[in-house]
Amino acid sequence: DKEVRAIFLRLFAQLFQGYRSCLQLIRIHAEPVIHFHKAAFLGQRGLIENDFLTKVLNGMAFAGFVSERGSPFRTCDLFDELVAFEVERIKAEEGNPPKMIKHVRELAEQLFKNENPNPHIAFQKVPRPTEGSHLRVHILPFPWINEGQVQELLQEGLARSQGAPPATRGDKKCVVPAGPPVGMFICS
Fold first, then answer.
1. What radius of gyration do the chain's Cα atoms show?
2. What are the UDENN domain coordinates in residue numbering (predicted)?
3. How many domains does the chain have?
């Protein structure tokens, strides 16, 4: 699973190499608007006639990609590192399948580590039901709710939430690396 995802990550990194140099941040509105200059991107890469990439860039998924990842100051991830720093490595591996496979496996390992930061935590397995357990009736009576206790708990929670600082994510934001300019990626 992770290796297939790593292959697609690499593919999209190759397709979109240099996309950050074609982003324009427009600050006329109260909220900044990020615009992607498609013609410049395709022209500088020599892919104006490429129907596939043109359709990808015109799609809703790419528009969402630009609005989500176009901000110059946000949390960076593996894709940003690939697009910004691994350009030469990906180019060099094009004719060498063993190196390409090695890189895909490294990316898959990084994806796995991102999703499982604490591998030593074991998940508790749910025991299998005993034989014939489906025949027994296990309906427990629902307890009566004490309205006074419910109101007390609600008031306590409200008091705590009003005095608590707003919740923040642990991700550190940084300036997203632009990577090499688009003109470097002339494709055949």
1. 25
2. 1-76
3. 1
- Give the span between the Cα atoms of 100 and 91, in whole angstroms: 10
3 state SS of 151: helix
**Cα 104 from Cα 98, distance rounded (Å):** 10
Longest Cα separation, the chain: 73
Instruction: Check if the beta carbon of residue 180 is closer than 8 Å to that of residue 38.
Output: no
Q: Please write the tens of the pLDDT for every residue from 118-143.
A: 766 656 677 787 887 777 776 777 78
| Domain of 60, in residue numbers | 1-117+171-175
53-69 exposure pattern, b = at least 16 Cβ within 10 A, e = fewer: beeebeeeebeebbeeb
Q: What is the pLDDT of residues 27-79, one digit of tens each?
A: 887 777 888 888 888 888 888 888 898 899 999 998 888 888 888 777 888 88
Q: Where are the alpha helices (DSSP H) in the chain?
A: 2-15, 38-45, 51-58, 60-69, 78-85, 87-93, 97-115, 147-163
The CA distances from residue 37 to 33, 69, 72, 104, 185, in Å, are: 13, 15, 16, 30, 16
Rounded-to-integer distance, Cα 146 and Cα 152, Å: 10
- Does residue 73 lie within any of the structural domains? yes
pLDDT digits (tens, 9 = 90+) for 154-186: 998 888 888 766 555 556 777 777 777 665 555
Assess if residue 55 is contained within a domain: yes
